[in-house]
Design a protein that fits this description.
CATH class of the largest domain in chain A: Alpha Beta
CATH superfamily of the largest domain in chain B: HUPs
Radius of gyration of chain B: 24 Å
Structural class of chain A: alpha/beta
Strand content of chain A: 25-35%
Oligomer: heterodimer
CATH topology of the largest domain in chain A: Rossmann fold
CATH topology of the largest domain in chain B: Rossmann fold
Strand order of the largest sheet of chain A: 5-9-4-1-2-3-10
Largest sheet of chain A: 7 strands, parallel
Number of strands of chain A: 16
Number of helices of chain A: 11
Distance between the termini of chain B: 78 Å
Largest interface: A-B, 95 and 86 residues
CATH architecture of the largest domain in chain A: 3-Layer(aba) Sandwich
Radius of gyration of chain A: 23 Å
CATH superfamily of the largest domain in chain A: HUPs
Largest sheet of chain B: 9 strands, mixed
Shape of chain B: globular
Helix content of chain B: 25-40%
Helix content of chain A: 25-40%
């Protein structure tokens, strides 16, 4: 009998397939990691009538799919999914399990790791294999101000949840083939202690600024409510969303929904324009995932200016006006 | 009458964090402590449940001696007693070991508990793992990321937003809930109460031995995960400074960063520039 091949598993989190591609992104990364440790890439799919995801995960890199398909699995269930994953992992002994850091994924992974008696790192923003063949899990803390490199040296599987958007999915290839392993629902499955009374899809609940590619944030340095309002015009020209600091929200220049900070929204735009914001850490911690920051402030020593890729020493309101004029000219 | 346990964590106060600007690292040993914001929301939820149902609230935390402050604050806010798990052997615990330690302490100090409340995550390590892992350790049903809690008899109904799904869930007690920051706006600490909490309130302090915990299973020793290093992604970032009149600055911005700006707004500003010149 041949030695069983090592495996990297990716949990198939398909509930928001079109909005959240974390599973596909993880399959792509798993393919790279698998080369380093000579492993196969497997997806675990639990649900009912989920054939299309089996097909998609195959097309996006899975060599093998473990499939549990049963009418009772129509809705996501934390306890049942945990039991199924735990039992499957005990039987198949994967080297690594990767799970998208969705709300479901983070709780699910915590429970699976606990039951398997192994380690878990949260919301990773990078994964690698080191010289010893261990999975290096890059886990952010303090709002991304620090990143810890974490390994699970002895226990198996090595487990991590990974922030959606960290890796790029590979283009689909519908000619790819995978082996589908049916994992039937066990007969002794314990009943679910948490009852789902109602579940309603609500895609819009205030998630826009978190997903925006461009965010225009304003602080007290804009000067007045009237001047602050120019940021909305700027954001519209940039196809972006407006964010605000706490003093601005308290002064009623912007709605509480716009609050970017520890107690408000965390943003991750391609570009963040920061106008008249000194940069209290409650605010900056929520901006750490911005890829490129352009900050405007009269004070070149403001924390936000130090953090920026481009620090513009100017009056925030005047600069905003000039930027609006220039954009109107080029977009026309 | 409900027997409620609230798990709290003292975290460094972010606004006061002593950052080393050269390396972008945190001098954590110099940081001021505060009650983690989500834990504060969990405590507020506990206080409101007790107002409606009656009962007792035990606040529990694991940490250095200084972490006692959050217990005293909880008592000032209305908790009935505080339990501090303090032992050097417990230090450096990962989430799994933390939940193991908390579970054993809850079983010892509050064996008749009905409801355990935790913040959904902490503002320092941000894992959101301890709550669900604690439910596993205590072998009770648990629901994370909850916005609304309604207790009726031995049943709890909860509402939460889970990945674009607004879910209503129910479980029977005993159970565990992790509470979102902002779900329950915390009340202010009454000044007199705070003084009394520091002067007279009793805090029970437990170490590993008093919980019969095997030192090999707790703290950094018992943890499956190991931290290799900690770095700051903020160190070494380029910082271009632009000065001048607003008009001149905007011109420079478009000259030097047209690809960045154009890329984000989905417009080829270079082509536009060529057309103009």
């Amino acid at each position: 009998m041949s030695v069983k091949k090592r495996a990297i598993w990716v949990f198939g989190d398909y509930r928001n397939y079109f909005q959240n591609r974390a599973t596909l992104q993880l399959l792509s990364r798993a393919m790279t990691l698998a080369k380093a440790i000579d492993a196969e890439v497997c997806a675990v799919v639990i649900g009912h009538e989920v054939g299309e995801y089996v097909m998609e995960y195959t097309a996006h890199g899975a060599d093998k799919i473990y499939l549990t398909d049963h009418p009772s699995l129509k809705n996501y269930s934390m306890e049942t999914y945990t039991v199924l994953m735990e039992r499957l992992a005990r039987r198949e002994k994967p080297e690594i399990i990767l799970i998208g850091a969705t709300t479901f994924g983070r709780e699910f992974a915590s429970r699976v790791a606990k039951r398997l008696g192994t380690g878990l790192s949260a919301d990773c923003i990078g994964l690698d294999i080191n010289g010893e063949g261990l999975l290096v899990q890059m886990a952010p803390s303090f709002g991304g101000n620090l990143v810890a490199q974490i390994v699970t040296p002895e226990r198996r599987p090595q487990m991590a949840t990974v922030r959606p958007g960290t890796f790029a999915e590979i283009p689909h290839d519908y000619d790819r083939k995978s082996e589908v392993v049916q994992a039937p629902l066990p007969e002794d499955l314990p009943g679910d202690r948490v009852r789902l009374i109602e579940s309603e899809r609500c895609p819009q609940r205030g998630r826009k600024i978190e997903e925006a590619k461009v965010v225009v944030c304003g602080g007290r340095g804009m000067g007045s409510k009237k001047k602050f309002a120019k940021l909305f015009e700027l954001a519209e020209l940039l196809n972006g969303e407006v964010g605000a600091t706490r003093p601005v929200v308290y002064a009623d220049w912007a709605d509480h929904d716009a609050l970017v900070g520890q107690a408000g929204k965390h943003i991750k735009p391609q570009i963040l324009f920061s106008f008249g914001i000194s940069g209290a850490i409650q605010h900056t911690a929520a901006c750490n995932d911005a890829k490129f920051i352009i900050a405007v402030n009269k004070n070149p020593n403001a924390a936000m200016m130090k953090k920026a890729d481009v620090a513009i020493v100017a009056d925030a309101s005047q600069l905003c006006t000039a930027l609006i004029q220039e954009l109107k000219r080029c977009i026309r | 009458m409900l027997n409620i346990v609230v798990c709290l964590k003292q975290v460094p106060m972010v606004s006061e964090l002593p950052w080393d600007p050269a390396t972008g690292t945190l001098r954590r040993e110099l940081a001021e402590g505060m009650m983690n914001p989500a834990c504060r929301a969990a405590l507020e939820a506990a206080l409101r449940i007790r107002e409606a149902q009656g009962g007792e609230i035990t606040a529990i935390t694991m940490g250095p001696k200084m972490a006692e402050e959050v217990l005293r604050e909880a008592i000032a806010l209305g908790a009935d007693r505080g339990v501090l798990l303090n032992d050097r052997k417990m230090a450096g615990a990962d989430t799994s070991v933390t939940s193991f330690t908390l579970a054993r302490a809850i079983e010892k100090t509050c064996p008749e508990f009905d409801l355990v409340l935790c913040g959904f995550a902490t503002s320092d390590s941000e894992t959101a793992q301890v709550g669900p892992q604690l439910a596993e350790e205590l072998d009770i049903p648990g629901v994370g990321y909850v916005d609304q809690i309604a207790v009726s008899g031995r049943t709890v109904r909860m509402q939460r937003l889970s990945d674009n799904f607004l879910e209503t869930l129910e479980m029977d007690l005993p159970g565990l809930i992790t509470v979102m920051t902002g779900a329950y706006i915390p009340r202010h600490v009454p000044m007199g109460g705070l003084q009394a909490a520091f002067d007279i309130a009793d805090i029970v302090t437990l170490d590993a031995a008093s919980l019969d915990l095997d030192p090999e299973r707790i703290g950094v020793k018992g943890s499956a995960t190991k931290i290799l290093s900690v770095t700051s992604p903020l160190a070494g970032k380029k910082n271009v400074v632009l000065t001048g009149t607003p008009k001149r600055i905007v011109e420079q911005l478009f000259e030097r960063f047209d690809d960045k700006i154009g890329g984000a707004i989905g417009k080829d500003l270079k082509a536009d520039k060529k057309k103009r010149s």
